[in-house]
């Protein structure tokens, strides 16, 4: 049904055409003899229809099929819109192959949409009124807008598809080049592959740039490429060795980094227990049996809003995909920032990052380097709606300690020999062999240095049953001028 709109000038985008239409409108009142109360019936002094003014809007048949419906009234409008002449009721009925009485009835229901001219020979001709012309022009404008949006979306989808194919090829070429290193990573961990960002950047700057700017989709493409090579099933890519110039302090995180890969260094404040979380749920429609999958991206559990068959609500939950997750609070390293007030950030770990070995990295007090995707988290109001403000959190991709503990297994043979030589000298001459190299900036205080050396070099893993303490308790008591504060 066409809504009745206020009369307004025809917008054609052409000044000359608009001027001509206005002149024709003026000529209507000059050439017409009578005007009834509804302003719909005019009587002309001549039988020459060429002298009648034309108020119309022209569109081709393809456009007309898109903007007009199939009912009788809409088809009558289509006849007028695709022609620039007047029609009798019989001519319209002949064009539409319908009964003339139906045409008259349909047009009489909307008299204000037509201009009716009665000639001297009693012949009645019809044309569109300004009201419906404005409405048709509005339809054409909306159709053109939708068409432009559709074309832009098609271009975007095509660009996205070509980009995905290009990244897929780049990823496969990278894996073929570093097949040996990837094989070692596969042997060390089940389906987790650690990739060096610097190597990726050296191989393909496009691939490395896409990892930073659009990490979620790019990492999915990389995982898909690795799976297609047949090296591993369901791989998980972890990115490491991000350059220091990409590091962001927590206090400097802004909205422009949302959905990008960021590198954050901080100190672990607290960690929650590892708990299962639903990431995807599948529902069955009781009406048609369709399986509907819903991603669980928010705190509140989401159900399908409707099914393709039209049903709303009452869906049956079939399966839930669960992953282990934990929330960690990270704070800025105050010694590396100028701000006296530390800023904190929520980070989330899941899947392999929640294993007992990896969870030890997040012991409160540890300084860690986090690589992850910055996410926007909606804030829910007490009324049930969502706030215009949002919180932020990091979905962790990889983590490592800022300063790793010394591992004896990593010592070289030369280093082991040096340690053994120093130990032999200590056994022979006592602590004076290493006392001089401990806190060399502090002169004297040999006894205090010896006490602290004993505290640091305690014997570990001694069973309590033997009655020997493996960690000596040492009390330092001396004046403040003894420099024990500097070396303790």
Q: How does this structure look, described?
A:
- This protein has 488 residues and is α+β, with helices and mostly antiparallel strands.
- It folds into four domains: 15-128, Arc Repressor Mutant, subunit A; 149-240, mini-chromosome maintenance (MCM) complex, chain A, domain 1; 255-401, Nucleic acid-binding proteins (OB fold (Dihydrolipoamide Acetyltransferase, E2P), Beta Barrel), CATH 2.40.50; 408-487, no CATH class.
- Helix content is 37%, strand content 21%.
- The chain contains 15 helices and twelve strands.
- It has helices at residues 15-31, 61-67, 72-81, 89-96, 100-109, 130-177, 179-188, 197-203, 205-213, 215-228, 356-359, 413-429, 432-435, 446-456, 484-487, and strands spanning 41-43, 114-118, 124-128, 192-196, 236-240, 261-271, 275-284, 291-295, 316-331, 344-350, 367-380, 386-401.
- The strands form three sheets. Strands 6-9-10-12-11 form a five-stranded mixed barrel. It has a three-stranded mixed beta sheet with strand order 1-2-3.
- Strand 2 (114-118) and strand 3 form a beta hairpin.
- It is elongated.
- Mean pLDDT is 77; it is low at 1-22 and 24-51.
CATH fold-level name of the largest domain? OB fold (Dihydrolipoamide Acetyltransferase, E2P)
The N- to C-terminal Cα distance equals 88 Å
Shape: elongated
Question: Which class of the largest domain in CATH terms?
Answer: Mainly Beta
Strand content: 15-25%
User: Class by helix and strand content?
Assistant: alpha+beta
- Low-confidence segments: 1-22, 24-51
In helices, the fraction of residues equals 25-40%
Specify the number of helices: 15
| Count of all domains | 4
Order of helices and strands: HEHHHHEEHHEHHHEEEEEEHEEHHHH
Radius of gyration (CA) equals 40 Å
Count of strand segments: 12
Q: Note the quaternary state here.
A: single chain
Tell me about the biggest sheet? 5 strands, mixed, barrel
Physical arrangement of strands within the biggest beta sheet? 6-9-10-12-11
The CATH architecture of the largest domain can be named as Beta Barrel
Average pLDDT value?
77
């Amino acid at each position: 049904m066409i809504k009745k709109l206020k009369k307004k000038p025809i917008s054609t985008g052409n000044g000359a055409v608009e001027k001509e239409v206005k002149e024709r409108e003026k000529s209507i009142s000059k050439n017409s003899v009578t005007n009834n109360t509804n302003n719909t019936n005019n009587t002309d002094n001549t039988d020459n229809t060429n002298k009648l003014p034309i108020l119309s809007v022209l569109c081709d048949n393809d456009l007309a099929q898109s903007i007009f419906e199939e009912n009788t009234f809409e088809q009558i409008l289509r006849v007028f819109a695709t022609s620039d002449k007047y029609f009798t009721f019989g001519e319209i009925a002949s064009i539409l192959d319908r009964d003339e009485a139906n045409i008259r009835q349909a047009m009489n229901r909307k008299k204000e949409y037509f201009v009716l001219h009665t000639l001297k020979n009693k012949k009645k001709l019809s044309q569109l009124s300004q009201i419906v012309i404005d409405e048709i022009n509005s339809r054409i404008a909306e159709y053109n807008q939708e068409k432009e949006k559709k074309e832009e979306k098609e271009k975007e989808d095509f660009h996205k598809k070509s980009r995905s194919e290009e990244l897929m090829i780049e990823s496969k070429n990278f894996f073929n080049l570093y097949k040996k290193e990837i094989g070692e990573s596969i042997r060390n961990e089940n389906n987790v592959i650690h990739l060096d960002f610097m190597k990726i950047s050296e191989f393909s700057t496009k691939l490395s740039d896409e990892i930073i700017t659009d990490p979620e989709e790019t990492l999915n493409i990389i995982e898909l490429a690795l799976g297609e090579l047949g090296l591993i099933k369901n791989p998980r890519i972890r990115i490491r060795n991000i350059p220091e110039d990409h590091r962001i302090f927590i206090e400097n995180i802004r909205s422009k980094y949302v959905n990008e890969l960021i590198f954050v260094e901080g100190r672990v404040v607290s960690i929650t227990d590892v708990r299962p979380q639903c990431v995807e749920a599948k529902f069955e429609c009781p009406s048609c049996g369709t399986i509907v999958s819903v991603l669980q991206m928010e705190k509140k559990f989401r159900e399908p809003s409707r099914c393709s068959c039209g049903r709303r609500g009452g869906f049956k939950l079939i399966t839930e995909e669960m992953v282990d997750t934990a929330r960690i609070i990270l704070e800025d390293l105050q010694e590396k920032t100028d701000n006296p007030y530390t800023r904190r950030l929520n980070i989330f770990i899941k899947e392999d990052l929640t294993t007992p070995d990896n969870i030890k990295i997040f012991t409160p007090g540890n300084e860690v380097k986090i690589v992850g995707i910055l996410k926007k988290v909606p804030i829910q109001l007490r009324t049930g709606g969502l706030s215009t403000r949002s919180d932020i959190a990091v979905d962790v991709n990889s983590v490592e300690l800022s300063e790793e503990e010394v591992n004896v297994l990593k010592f070289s043979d030369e280093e082991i020999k040096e340690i053994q030589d120093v130990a032999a000298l200590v056994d022979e001459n006592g602590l004076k062999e290493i006392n001089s190299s401990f806190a060399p900036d502090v002169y004297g205080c040999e006894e205090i240095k010896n006490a602290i050396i004993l505290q640091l070099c305690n014997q570990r893993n001694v069973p309590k049953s033997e009655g020997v303490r493996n960690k000596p308790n040492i009390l330092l008591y001396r004046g403040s001028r003894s420099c024990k504060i500097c070396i303790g």
